[in-house]
Specification:
The complex is a heterodimer of chains A (161) and B (437). With 161 residues, chain A is an alpha+beta fold. Chain A is 22% helix and 43% strand. Chain A is built from 3 helices and 6 strands. In chain B, the strands form 6 sheets. A 5-stranded antiparallel beta sheet of chain B has the order 16-15-14-22-21, with helices on one face. Chain B has a 4-stranded antiparallel beta sheet with strand order 6-5-4-7, with no helix packed on it. Chain B has a 4-stranded antiparallel beta sheet with strand order 13-19-18-17. Chain B is globular.
Chain lengths: 161, 437
């Protein structure tokens, strides 16, 4: 599916870039405010996973759990954040999956570098953002991150991807 | 590798151990031979291989093995090695092999009990020293396989106690794991999560019943959970997501009062830290259990409220949230933990969804609780490598255990479980840890 025009493409692209930047700069509160009240942040555990209720996930977080994670990351005694995790997201291949009266579903691909303590890790995959139109902007109803190595054994995954 | 220079006897005392037991690669290799080569190890659950030809691969100590269902219904555990050239016959993971196992390399085929079915160019072996009827040309079975309520264990050694004797007092945890299902059975479901730890496997095991680390190590998560709840309108029922995280913030006196049991062979269990909740999901589950078992029996089952159980040295069931964490040592300072979730057969769907919520929040790689554990384990591993000292203490409440049949009980704050595991470890390794306390 094509974008209506350059303007729509710009709005969506800028939104995704802004969202990634909030994560990379640890601006958790602003990031959480991007979601609709019932919005879900989901990282499936297996390829092609269709269900987050009857199958385990890598992350499956509603507003309450996103808030708890954000609070934990900022605790003075979050020992596993001494030093904190540093990330950089690189987005690409932003394309429109579908459009409805209320919003759009956008697919993008990403590379994520994570640095903590002594180790650099890399993650990559695709993201489906289900976005609701809100005035000139968007709210996230679902952010689904499909890692190419979702089914690998992982060390702790502490920050939002 | 020459390991005869290690004086194991000098490394284990009743109330302290030398740092080398966690850091020396040669000792790790000896453990693979003597601990993991002798003990009954958890392989998997029969529900993972429901049909003929279904297989599940895993590691027992250093060995790659495959659990596979045979045409006679039996679940076999085979070394995943073709007797021809040595290739792993089935790929890592799980799946269905069909009616027989077929090696990718030259097409030798085997029945699901490992016995040789056919070889290409059979005539080529006539009048040679290779006897196709010899057991050497079937896939080798592990020495012993036994199961308890569907939980399959294997021993790489022909000798040793029977599984029932080995499990002793923790068989009740596996029983309760299944008894909590209205149909009395459980099944693996919902996927497996895997976590890599940068620490020796024993550090993880010791932490399972270390009740006094929680309030310190987990401050970031229990405080975040408490803050989350305080931000909710007054009178809000405490959400399940908060309950299972803020419990770690209980004061030390709370943990002291928990029942803690240690059994022969290094096993043990700890009393549940959560009062069974009374929300609609829990009540519907209790009703389903009462409907099938009767109110009195259901009450008996649910009274057995346990947090982590230790089945040394391979797994840790959590009976009230239907999890089994399987511990696979990879090297002296790397450990793989696999988290399996189970469905209680006959329970409402919402009960299983809660099981998955628990695993996502507490046990998964993205857990908010576990990273601080992993950080602690890793700092222990790194600290032990230094020359700042040689010994690791297990003194707390030493000498105060109460004897039980086949084991011992202690105050919830005691380091009895660690001492109990090391007494067992020493026995496997062929030395004495200083005898009874």
């Amino acid at each position: 599916m094509n974008f209506n025009d350059w303007q729509e493409q710009q709005e969506i692209t800028q939104f995704l870039h802004h969202e990634a930047r909030l994560l990379d700069e640890h601006r958790w509160d602003e990031w959480q405010r991007l979601f609709t009240p019932d919005g879900l942040y989901w990282v499936p555990l297996v390829h092609g996973q269709t269900d987050h209720l009857n199958h385990a996930s890598l992350f499956c977080e509603d507003a309450l759990l996103r808030s708890m994670r954000a609070r934990r990351l900022e605790q003075a005694r979050a020992y596993s954040q001494q030093p904190p995790t540093r990330t950089v997201h690189v987005l690409g291949n932003i394309s429109l999956e579908s459009r409805s009266e209320t919003g759009v579903v956008v697919r993008s691909t990403f590379l994520l570098l994570e640095w903590r303590k002594t180790e650099q890790r890399s993650f990559g995959g695709s993201v489906l953002h289900t976005l609701q139109r809100e005035g000139r902007g968007f709210r996230i109803q679902m952010k689904r991150v499909d890692l190419i190595n979702c089914d690998a054994a992982h060390e702790a995954l502490q920050v939002f991807m | 590798m020459t390991t005869t220079t290690i004086d194991l006897q000098a490394l284990v005392q009743p109330d302290r151990v030398h740092k080398r037991v966690y850091t020396d690669p040669a000792i790790f290799e000896l453990e693979m031979d003597r601990v993991f080569g002798q003990a009954w190890l958890y392989v998997g659950h029969k529900s993972q291989v429901p049909n003929v030809g279904d297989y599940f691969t895993t590691r027992l100590g250093r060995e790659s093995v495959v659990m596979v269902r045979h045409t006679d219904g039996e679940v076999n555990v085979l070394y995943n090695r073709c007797p021809h050239k040595g290739a792993k016959i089935v790929p890592d993971g799980s799946g269905s092999a069909g009616k027989f196992l077929r090696c990718l390399y030259h097409g030798w085929t085997f029945k699901c009990d490992g016995s040789l079915l056919s070889v290409p160019l059979r005539s080529g072996y006539e009048d040679t020293a290779l006897d196709l009827k010899s057991p050497a040309y079937s896939v080798r079975k592990v020495a012993r396989v036994a199961s308890h309520r569907g939980f399959v264990f294997a021993s790489l050694s022909e000798d040793g106690p029977e599984l029932s004797e080995f499990l002793g007092g923790v068989a009740t945890s596996l029983d309760n794991f299944c008894d909590r299902a209205p149909e009395g059975e459980v099944e693996v479901a919902g996927g497996v999560q895997r976590v890599i730890q940068r620490n020796n496997w024993k550090i993880f095991f010791e932490n399972l019943h270390d009740t006094i680390h929680a309030v310190a190590t987990h401050e970031s998560s229990w405080r975040a959970a408490k803050e989350e709840y305080e931000a909710m309108p007054a009178g809000t029922p405490k959400p399940f997501e908060v309950v299972i995280v803020d419990g770690n913030g209980e004061p030390l006196e709370f943990w002291a009062n928990l029942e803690l049991k240690g059994y022969d062979h290094g096993h043990g269990f700890m009393e549940g830290i959560f009062v069974p909740p009374t929300d609609p999901v829990s009540l519907a589950y209790v009703a389903s259990l009462e409907a099938s078992q009767g109110a009195q029996r259901a009450d008996e089952i649910l009274r057995v409220n346990r947090h982590n159980t230790i089945v040394y040295p391979s797994c840790s069931p959590h009976t009230s949230f239907q999890q089994i964490r399987v511990i696979r040592p990879l090297s002296v300072d790397r450990t793989l933990v696999e988290i399996f979730s189970f469905r209680l057969k006959g329970a409402p769907e919402a009960t299983f969804q809660r099981t998955l919520k628990y695993t996502n929040i507490v046990n998964s790689p993205s857990s908010n609780v576990m990273p601080d554990d992993l950080e602690a384990y890793n700092r222990v591993q790194e600290g032990l490598a230094s020359d700042g000292g040689d010994w690791v203490s297990m003194h707390r409440a030493a000498g105060r255990d109460q004897p039980l049949p086949g084991g011992r009980a202690s105050n919830g704050n005691s380091e009895m479980p660690a001492r109990n595991m090391f007494r067992t470890w020493a026995a496997y390794m062929g030395v004495q840890a200083g005898g009874a306390e």
